[in-house]
Structures are given as structure tokens and as C-alpha cells.
Amino acid sequence: MDSQNIKVAVDPVVFGYENGSLFILLIKQKYGPMKGKWVLPGGFVKDNEPLSVAVARELKEETNVTVDYLEQLFTFGDDVNRDPRGHIISIAYLGLANPKQLDIQANTDASDVNWFEINKLPQLPFDHNQIIKKGLERLQSKVHYKPIGFDLLGDEFVFSDLENLYRTILQKEIDRRNFRKKILSFGLLEETGELRKTGSGRPGAVYRFNKRKYSQLESSGFHFDIKFA
């Protein structure tokens, strides 16, 4: 029987949203062949370690970040030469977070950590550009049928923040009137009773997303469905 020398890594692509732009969380490598280069956080899975535990551990160790939303995205390994350190299979994860709610700090294998606007990323090694592209495609698809966009907003927001978020993710204009009507028809947003001014217009009502109500509705067969022409 031929011996195997394959390692498994986990690489989370964590999206953040702020001021109308999408961001990606990157670290600067402290060691190894890519020392000094910006890369996605991540690392090797330990023996007998579940993948979900490994990706959360690596993210916390290298960036001091814990995110509520992490889902397995894709397996990258068809190119056996994707990593100069050897035959390494990467299990990529999609993460969503609000940068204002996180205290990022570089540690262990990272000499620095920062958020980069998705359209202004530094040159990335390995196949990390492909991982980010796959993550964006998943995000753009999933916001149509799951309310995952709320993980990118703060706990409280005005409706224009939600509109801008969807426009930014989908990279296109949306029908604001129909979007508002559809979202409010779900009954998942609750008003806080406060008003917030975000531009030159009138102050808008402040909302919060009712996660508990969504979970209850989902368990009874409710489908979150947003379609755009």
C-alpha cells in the first residue's frame, strides 16, 4: 500500500461590512514560505480535531476573532501543487461578522491582521483569491433565501442600512420599494422606538432582527425568499 503524506487545513474567508463596502479579514504571515505576505487566516487540523473546532480555533488564535456565522464552503485540493509546503487540502469556510463588534489582534502565526476592502485586496498567494471568489458567490446566492445578511449589520440599524447592504453584496441596484415591502411582510424586524439620522434626509426608524422568531418560523416551514428582477 502506498503511503500518504497529505495534510488538511482550514481557511476561513470572513466577510465584514461597513460604510457601504464589503471587507475581507486577512493576516500577515509571520513564518514559512509566505512570510510577510497577506493571506487568509487558517492552519492545519490537529489529530482527532473536528473541522468546525479547528476553523474556530485558528481564527481565534491568529486574529482574536470569534464569529457567530461560520459555514463550510468548499474543498480546495484538485491542484496538488497549490501549496509549496506539500500536498495540502484546504477546507474553506464562509464567515460573516460586523467589524465594529470585533477586537482584532494578531497572534501565533500572524504578525499583523486587518480588514481589506474586497475591491482593494493585496496580492494573495496560494489559491486564496479563488477561495474569496467562491465565498462571495455563496454569499450573493444565499442572501436570497437565508437572512444571513443581518450577521453583517449591527444589532440595530435603519432600513436604508439593510438596503445598502443588499446592494453592496449583490453589486447592483435593487427596487427599494418592493424590497422594503417584502422584508417588512415577513414580520421579522421589530422597531426599537428610536430614530436615527444617517444622511441629509429625515431620521429613520431603528430596527432589530428577531432571530428567535425567525428560528420558530423556520422550524414550522417558513421560507425566507427575496427575489430581484
Automatic annotation (TrEMBL):
Cytoplasm found in the keyword field: no
InterPro entries: NUDIX_hydrolase-like_dom_sf, NUDIX_hydrolase_CS, NUDIX_hydrolase_dom, WH-like_DNA-bd_sf, WH_DNA-bd_sf, WHD_NrtR
Keyword annotations from UniProtKB, A to Z: Hydrolase
One example GO MF annotation: hydrolase activity
Secretion signal, residue range per the UniProt entry: none
Pfam families: NUDIX (PF00293), WHD_NrtR (PF21906)
Nudix hydrolase domain location: 5-140
Top-level taxon: Bacteria
Protein name (record): NUDIX hydrolase
Organism, scientific name: Roseivirga seohaensis
